[in-house]
Amino acid sequence: MKTTAKVWKLEKISKTTIALAGNPNSGKTTLFNAITGARQHVGNYPGITVERKEGSITIKNTRVKLIDLPGTYSLSAYSQEELVARNFLIDEKPDIVVDIVDATMLERHLYLAVQFFELGIPVVLAMNMMDDVKKQGLRIDKQKLSKLLNCPIVETIARTGQGKLELLEVAINEAKDKKKPWVPLKISYGTDIDLALDEMEKIILDHQFMTNRYPARWIALKYLENDSEIIRLGQQDSQVAEQLMVIIENVREHCLKTLNIPPEAIIADYRYGLINSILKQNIIIQEKPRHERIEFTTKLDRFLVNRYLGPVLMVAILYAMFQITFSLGEIPMGWLESFFAWISTSATKLIPEGLLQSLVVSGIIDGVGGVMGFVPLIAIMFLMISFLEDSGYMARVAYMLDRVLRIFGLHGYSAMPFIISGGIAGGCAVPGVMATRTLRSPKEKLATLLTAPFMPCGAKLPVFMLLVAAFFSEYKAQMMFSITLFAWVMALLVAKLVRSTIIRGKSTPFIMELPPYRLPTLRGIYIHTWERTWQYIKKAGTVILAVSILLWAAMTFPSLPEGQVNQFAAERQAISSSIQDNTKRELALLEISNHEGQTALRYSLAGRIGSSLEPLSQLAGFDWRTNIALVGGFAAKEVIVSTFGTAYSLGDVDPESADTLSSRIAVDPSWNKFTALSMIVFVLLYAPCVVTVVAMAKESSWRWAIFATVFNTTIGFGMAVAIYQIGTKLFI
C-alpha cells in the first residue's frame, strides 16, 4: 500500500513549461509578475546579455515553469531579442506558448501569432487589456476567433490579474499531450512566392537541409525574408545554400519588376491579409459608442507630440521633475544626514581610538553614509520616472527625439538607451547599453552604445548633488536640469563626430508604436520605484561598501613613519604647555591633528597615487585627494562620494564647523565654483564604470569598450580643463 501511494503521487505531480511571448507593451511582463509574484528569478540567456525571467507556480498538481520571453514583434532575426525568443522556442521546445496580445490592437498583435502558427508551435492566445476593449464600447467574439485561429483564447486584464488562473488552466490542459507533433500552418503568398516556396521546400527536404531543427517550408520562408541568421547557418552547406539563393534572386528580380516590392514585403502583406480576412468576419463588434479614451489620447497628442509645442513641454516636464525632487527630498535627506552623523559620533565614542575606529567611522559610516544620504532624492526621481513610463509618455519622448537624433546620425530607438542610461536623470548605463540591441543598424547601435554612458545615471547623481549643494545651493534644480541638458548635447555632438568619421553610414527609418495614455496604478509605480531604489541601496551596501573599505585601507596604509608621528606628538605637547587659554589651545591642537591627518593621507598608497596624477590633474583644478576619488570612480561612480566622505573624515577640515560632507568641501580652500563645474563635467563624461564597460564589450567587442573608456576620459578631461582654466582666468 505504501509503495502504491508513492507511485500514485509521482504519477499525479506533473511538470509543464510555458513560455510567455508577445509584442512590447502588450502587458506580457505585467502578467508574468501577476502570476509568479516573488517566485521568480532573473538572469541572462546563456552567452547573451538579454534578460531571462523565470518563475514557477504549482496549480492542480502541476508544477508550472514560466518563461518570460523578450518582447518581440516578429520571429525574424532583426534584433537580438527576436533571435533569442526564436531560438528558445526552437531549441527548448516549451510545452505551450502563451501569446499575450493587446485586444485593442488585434490586427497588429496577431501578426506574431500567425508566425507562431507557421512554425507549428502550440499556442494559447491571451487577449489582454479587455477592460480597455469594454471602455471603447467593443465586444470581441472569442469563440468565433478561437475557431478561425484554431487555438484556445482566454480574456485577461494583466494589471489586475483577472483571468490569470483560467489562462494557466487552459495552457496546462493544452500542454498535456506533450507528444503531439508541431504542425506548421501553410499560408498562400500568391503564385510567384508559392511556386518558389514549393521548389525550395523540395530542395530542403531532399538534402535534409537544417530540417533537424526547423520545418522545411519555414526555412524557405526565412530565406525569402532575408533572415540573416538562417542564411548564416545555411552557409554550412554551401551547395544547397547556393541553389536556394539562385531561386531567391530570380523571385526578387521578378517581384521588383512586376510589383515594385521585394518578396519579404509581399509575405508581410499576405500575413496581414489573412488577419484582416479573419477579423472582418464580425469578430470585433461595436456595441456602444466609442469610449472617450482613444479620443482623449488623440487630443492629448496634439499638444504633447506637436512639432513645436511638444519639445517645449518635454523640457518643461524635465525641469519640473528636478524642482519637485529637491523641494520634496531636502527634508528627508537632512534626516538621513543627521542620522548617519549621529551613528558616526556614537561609534567614535563607543570604539576606542585606533584602526578599528577609523575603519568603522571613516571607512564604513562616512563612506557608505555619504551615498545613502541621497536615497530620498533618488527615490523621488525614480517615482516620477515610473509614472512617465507607465503612463505612455516615454514612448512619445522617443518619438519626438527621433527628429533631432537623425540629424546627429542616430535613430529614434537611440532615445530609449539614452533615457534608460539617465537621459531623464536617475537611470543606469548598464541596461541602457543593453537596450541598444533594439537598433537594427550596427553603426547606429555602436554610436548609441558609445555615447549612452554620458547620461547622468543614478550613480553620478550623488556626486552632482553633493557639489551643487556645496557651491550652487540657491540654484539646485536649475543646475541639475542644466547638467542633464549638457549631457544630451555632448552625447549628440560626439555621436555626430563618430558617425562622420569612424562609424560612417546611412540612418535607418524609424517606426514606433505609441500606446494609448493610461493612468498608472499605485501598485505598479510603487513596485518600479522600489525595485530601482532597492538596487541603489543594495549597491551601496555591497559594492560601495567593499570598495569603500578597500579605499580606506589604501588611504590608511602605509602609515606615517614613527619619526613623523613622534614629531606631531612633540608639537602637541609643546602647545599644551605653552598656551594657557583653553579655546586657543584646542584650536591649535586641532590644527596639528588636521595637519597630521592630511600628511598621513598623502603618505598612504592612495595619497601617493593621487599625488602622482596631480601635475596633470591640476590643469582641471583637481588636487591629489580628488584624484583618489576619481580613480575609485572607475569601479563605480558612487564611490566618488564615499571616497570623499572617507578622505574628509581622515583629512584636514574641522568637523564641528562643517557637519556635512558638502559643507566640508565648500569650506576647503582648494575648491571653488569652477573646480566644482570642471569636476561635474569630468564625472559626467569620463570612463563608464567597470560593469558598464563589461556590458559594452558584450554588446560590441572589447576593442570598442576599451576605446570608449579612453575616448570618453579624454573628452571629459579636455572639457574639464577648458572650464576650469577659462573660468578661473576670467572670473577669479
Topology:
Elements: H1 2-12, E1 14-22, H2 28-36, E2 40-44, E3 51-59, E4 62-68, H3 80-92, E5 96-102, H4 106-119, E6 123-128, H5 130-135, E7 138-140, H6 142-149, E8 153-155, H7 164-175, H8 191-206, H9 216-224, H10 228-234, H11 238-258, H12 263-279, E9 284-286, H13 292-304, H14 309-350, H15 355-372, H16 375-391, H17 393-407, H18 415-423, H19 429-434, H20 442-451, H21 461-471, H22 476-500, H23 522-541, H24 543-556, H25 562-578, H26 582-603, H27 605-617, H28 624-632, H29 638-650, H30 661-666, H31 673-685, H32 690-699, H33 702-731
Parallel strand pairs: 1-4, 1-5, 5-6, 6-8
Antiparallel strand pairs: 2-3, 3-4, 7-9
Task: Write a compact overview of the structure shown.
65% of the residues lie in helices and 7% in strands.
Task: Give your account of this protein's structure.
The chain has 732 residues and is α/β, with parallel strands linked by helices. It folds into five domains: 12-175, P-loop containing nucleotide triphosphate hydrolases (Rossmann fold, 3-Layer(aba) Sandwich); 191-286, Helix Hairpins; 312-500, no CATH class; 527-560 and 605-731, no CATH class; 561-603. Helix content is 65%, strand content 7%. It has 33 helices and nine strands. The chain has a seven-stranded mixed beta sheet, with helices on both faces. It has a two-stranded antiparallel ribbon with strand order 7-9. Helix 4 (106-119) crosses helix 12. The protein is elongated and about 105 Å long. The termini are far apart. 42% of the residues are buried.
